[in-house]
Write a structure and sequence with these properties.
It is built from twelve helices and nine strands. The chain is of the alpha/beta class and 334 residues long. It has a single domain, classed as TIM Barrel, CATH 3.20.20.30. The radius of gyration is 19 Å and the shape is globular. The relative contact order is 0.14.
């Protein structure tokens, strides 16, 4: 069986506030823990009214306090926005509070637009230092070295698992070179997925953290009792991606009866391409779709994003997914 995990962007639905999004996040985390999901990750975004996870480590602290065993982590921290020392301290604190449960996924994108990057005092060239920053962060989580004058407190010696995130070949190459697990953002940028997975596995170097490659793909999954209801729920995601094509971002919108009334033909092509790794329908429909995807990509883990407007419907989608035999045919063949 392929491991299932959750990516929660902590969406703020139209007509609601960030406080509601946090309450929903806590409730979702508690439910997916009960249903056997492996990880619950939150992603760093800034200046987006429809996403409440900007203070990622703070949100994870809240989730950790209301769960017992599910792994909590960042999917991810946009490392060029921060000094490695500050991130080591934040995640060292989380690991100290919730030992053995913390993951740290790292990306090199800003997680925002250019103007917001400037407001964050982000150096436009900081992304070029990403590989060095990853190594610095890794060292800060390692044992204290003789003569080391700066250490993360807490953080030093905790060896928190690092992941490299990506939507291009760069992340795959870096994860392989450093011997780290790799998570691909196919939920919004699927074009390079197959090539990235092939490069990661072919070039992987064993490390102290990982002896064999471990690849995860993030995908959109919308499940409901019928195909028709799932497709209607999916119009919320389609509206969000259409708005991205238009250069506008807002709150998570309620579903509509027909997405064709919302997007233009050109917007449909663009948004649908971004959403190519989306699996929508009844349990019977989605189980087959996911198993074909797993067999094609050979991923070890699926991280599932489900941007559903109604919280109860979102819970139901994850509950139905937990009951599927995802990756079973692949495991049997092996």
């Amino acid at each position: 069986m392929v491991t299932l995990s959750v990516l929660d962007l902590v969406p703020v639905a139209e007509g609601h506030k960030p406080a509601d999004a946090f309450a929903n996040a806590k409730d979702l985390a508690q439910h997916v823990e009960k249903w056997g999901y492996q990880r619950y990750w939150v992603a760093e975004h800034h200046n987006m009214v429809g996403i409440a996870g900007a203070a990622t480590s703070v949100v994870l602290g809240f989730i950790g306090a209301h769960t017992q065993k599910i792994r909590i982590g960042a999917g991810g921290i946009m490392l060029p926005n921060h000094s490695p020392l500050v991130i080591a301290e934040q995640f060292g604190t989380l690991e100290s509070l919730y030992p053995g449960r913390v993951d740290l996924g790292l990306g090199r994108a800003p997680g925002t637009d250019r103007q917001t990057s400037m407001a964050m005092r982000r150096d436009p060239m900081a992304a070029d230092q990403f590989p060095d920053d990853v190594l610095e962060l890794q060292a800060l989580f390692g044992p204290l070295q003789p003569g080391q004058t700066v250490q993360a407190v807490p953080g030093t010696g905790l060896n928190i698992p690092l992941w490299i995130l990506g939507s291009s070949l760069f992340g795959a190459q870096l994860a392989a070179a450093f011997g780290l697990p790799y998570a691909f953002a196919s939920h919004f940028a699927p074009d390079a997925l197959d090539d990235a997975m092939a490069i990661y596995r072919a070039r992987f170097n064993a490390s102290a953290q990982l002896t064999q490659p471990h690849a995860m793909a993030c995908v959109n999954v919308i499940l409901a009792d019928t195909d028709a209801e799932a497709q209607r729920l999916f119009t919320t995601v389609q509206q969000r991606f259409t708005d991205m094509v238009r250069g506008t971002r807002g709150y998570l919108k309620p579903p509509i009866d027909s997405i064709e009334t919302y997007w233009s033909p050109a917007e449909k092509v663009h948004a649908s391409r971004m959403l190519a790794c989306s699996f929508v329908g009844s349990p019977q429909t989605v189980e087959g779709q996911l198993n074909r995807f797993i067999e094609r990509t050979g991923v070890d883990e699926l991280m599932v994003a489900s941007a559903i407007y109604d919280h109860a419907a979102r819970l139901r989608s994850y509950e139905l997914l937990a009951g599927l035999s995802v990756g079973q045919s692949l495991a049997s063949a092996a």
